[in-house]
Amino acid sequence: MPVPLHGYTIFCDDIRYETGGKYSLIGVYRSEMIIHGEFPFILPKFVLAITYLDEPVDHPDTVQLMVYLPGDPDDQPSVKGELPVGQVMKNVPAPAKSTDVLEIQTVMVFAPLTIRSEGLIRVRAVRSDEVVKLNSLSVVKAPAEAEVPGAKASEN
Fold first, then answer.
1. pLDDT range class, residue 156, cuts 50, 70, 90
2. Of 47, 48, 60, 81, which alpha carbon lies 20 to 30 A from 34's?
3. Cα-Cα-Cα-Cα dihedral of 102, 94, 61, 72, to 10°?
4. Collapsing DSSP states into helix, strand and coil, what is residue 72?
């Protein structure tokens, strides 16, 4: 049975490489990024740790990688790149079983990153004509202090 195309992205503030092939993701975002300030908002550093999974056979030489920032139209991502699937496969032994999976990991570092509005940061891969959703992160403005449930206005 073929392996379905899939993958994921971890959104974080920084990545640190360690000895022994390990790395640490610093400031990992869960489902949303809360902006404390006005838009446009500038992050000093923002990292996408992307993992793409595919069948190790019958694949295109390249897979398009696209990052959409809040406000980007569906046909105009802020960042476009390629995952060199064919090049990676030249360095990988032939699959032993039909359930083997090709895993490609890449990191994108933005330093700085300007976020112009609320919305979604979306990461997508395009394999031939198939769009693979690799995750998204919601960007929201922090509520004003008076709007925070349980917050009390200061008395002057």
1. very low
2. 81
3. 0
4. coil
From residue 135, give the alpha-carbon distance in Å to each of 30, 58, 60, 64, 156: 11, 24, 22, 15, 46
Options 1.20.120, 1.10.1740, 2.60.40, 3.10.450; CATH for 6-143 is 2.60.40
- Pairing assessment for the beta strands 23-28 and 6-17 based on DSSP bridges: antiparallel
Q: Do 85 and 63 form a contact (C-beta atoms < 8 A)?
A: yes
**What percent of the chain is modeled with pLDDT above 70?**
79
pTM for this prediction:
0.82
Is the pLDDT assigned to residue 144 strictly greater than 70?
A: yes
Radius of gyration of the chain (CA): 19
